[in-house]
Design goal:
- With 464 residues, the protein is of the alpha+beta class.
- 34% of the residues lie in helices and 26% in strands.
- Strand 14 and strand 15 form a beta hairpin.
- Helix 1 packs across helix 10, helix 2 packs across helix 6 and helix 11 runs parallel beside helix 14.
- The longest helix is centred in the middle third of the chain and has 21 residues.
- The chain is globular and about 80 Å long.
- Bound molecules: adenosine-5'-triphosphate and magnesium ion (MG).
- The site of adenosine-5'-triphosphate (ATP) has 16 residues, from strand 8, strand 13, strand 16 and helix 10.
- Adenosine-5'-triphosphate (ATP) binds next to strand 8, strand 13, strand 16 and helix 10.
- Belongs to the class-II aminoacyl-tRNA synthetase family. ProS type 2 subfamily.
Amino acid sequence: MRLSRFFLPVLRETPAEAQIVSHRLMLRAGMIKQNAAGIYSWLPLGFKVLRKIENIVHEEQARAGHIAMLMPTVQSADLWRESGRYDAYGDELLRIRDRHDRDMLYGPTNEEMITDIFRSHVGSYKDLPLTLYHIQWKFRDEMRPRFGVMRGREFFMKDGYNFDLSKEDALHAYNRHLVTYLRTYERMGLQAIPMRADSGPIGGDDTHEFLVLAETGESEVFYDSAVTDLTFGDREIDYDSVAQCAGVLEEFTSKYARTDETHDQTVFEQQVPQERRRTARGIEVGQIFYFGTKYSDAMGATVQGPDGKPTPVHMGSHGIGVSRLVGAIIEASHDDKGIIWPEGVTPFHCGIVNLKQGDAEADAACESLYAGLTALGLDPLYDDRDERAGGKFATMDLIGLPWRITVGPRGLKNGVVELTSRRTGESEEVPPEEAVKKIADIYRGHHASEHVPMMGNRSFHTYI
Ligand code: ATP
Ligand code: MG
């Protein structure tokens, strides 16, 4: 993309209404525009990041054998009356009346709708296990929408639902989701710590929240510093293996890590040596639940069991805050000049800065870099505007592309361009072809198609 043809409405002034750094930077970098309290348009730069995050979530769900679909945002109130949540959900539920006076709502989550789909189409235990998910806009009429996309009213969320014949199978689905989520966050350059949590209005017995540590987090968290040494890395996991998934769950949840809702100071002091006890703030970026037969009992979601008798299915639900993650990543990765995108989610792979627009040699070198990178499947942002170098650097630093190639007549005389890391600020002078090769090498590991083997070991269900 050429910056002269892109739509990047950066702001010079720091917006007064934004209290936390991610909100300020998203506004300044022209990523979002507020429409009403907690409701935003995603401008092109923000939309690109949102899409990258969404894609990582899809790829990791596919790897675990979970099946994508799409449910609507507006739902009929009838199903919510069946589950009892139409009244129980409270003021966060946006209730709507259509022209025929029918009660509708803008979905804050989809347990009822998915349970209805399930009971309409699945009749036998032979169709289990089944995990369906979608990534869709949600609405919760939050009392205090704030911090930009971190606590919006309309927000983009991945929500998944597993259906299993027994509690053991459902707990395997729970563990499998925990593993999937750890890998998902790591691909976004984040370390998210699973913490035992309260279940809230979803209801249920087992639940973990995933928290990213950041000063501006809304939750107070208490943890053993040893948990921050744990990384998922490149390990191969067979998602169908009960033992492997349980092993990862055990590894990542055995050390003390709780939010203030479930924190127990006595247990904390008993379990964790004083030098490893930490108190910090955290941002919730996801949550997984096992809630047994709560919805299947209320809504009659049964399958015919092996004994021929109707058996209520065991369910769980799992959510990732896709739009909140954009803010959470910025909270975890920025400096005083702007955003620093991790390679996995960056809106463009690198920037090209032409120090002397209009200079025939500099222009030609930039065009050639642009063509070379694009031919390798990379997505560079070429700042081809007729602006002074300082302004171009400031824009690149603000929007946070991890790599920048700077091209100027002086370097070209010696056959080199400058390759700079946004994170470290370190630069090296290299011939243009080598800059292209280096950037391609950096991103090779981030190309999903090369990197992520899709697990083909779960059959797809088709229902007519
Ligand atoms: P919170 O405690 O932050 O209100 P929640 O526990 O009610 O969130 P869940 O039902 O667990 O939310 O939803 C799954 C994920 O969706 C959360 O982990 C969070 O990342 C995201 N999320 C929830 N509410 C919002 C919101 N108002 N704005 C943006 N993202 C949200
Ligand atoms: Mg939650």
